[in-house]
Amino acid sequence: MTDFPVVPTGENVTRQVLSDHPEMMVVAFRFAAKGAEGALHNHPHVQSTYVKDGRFRFTLGDEEREVGPGDSFVIPSEMVHGCVCLEPGTLVDCFTPRRDDFL
């Protein structure tokens, strides 16, 4: 159980910090509907993404990749990335260092 609030980040998308430390943060992103998007963006943090459930099409730099339950990958610092939800589900992301903008 986490004490952090569920925060809307877009239409049919929410995020909730699960745990944090100055050097790392774990965040759940929940996509409630097909077509919901995680907009293209980049940041200085290294990010790992684990697909808890659902299906997603990710853009990672110049590459597109479809991922599903159990898939995991790392996004380097400053790489432009985003996703489109193909089947509702949850992504569990880890950031290092933590995303202070999420607190």
UniProtKB/TrEMBL annotation:
Domain Cupin type-2: start-end pairs: 33-87
CDD domains tied to this protein: cupin_KdgF (cd02238)
Xref: Gene3D superfamilies: Jelly Rolls
InterPro entries: Bacilysin_H2HPP_isomerase, Cupin_2, KdgF, RmlC-like_jellyroll, RmlC_Cupin_sf
TM ranges: none
Name of the protein: Cupin domain-containing protein
Species the sequence originates in: Octadecabacter dasysiphoniae
Taxonomy of the source species: Bacteria, Pseudomonadati, Pseudomonadota, Alphaproteobacteria, Rhodobacterales
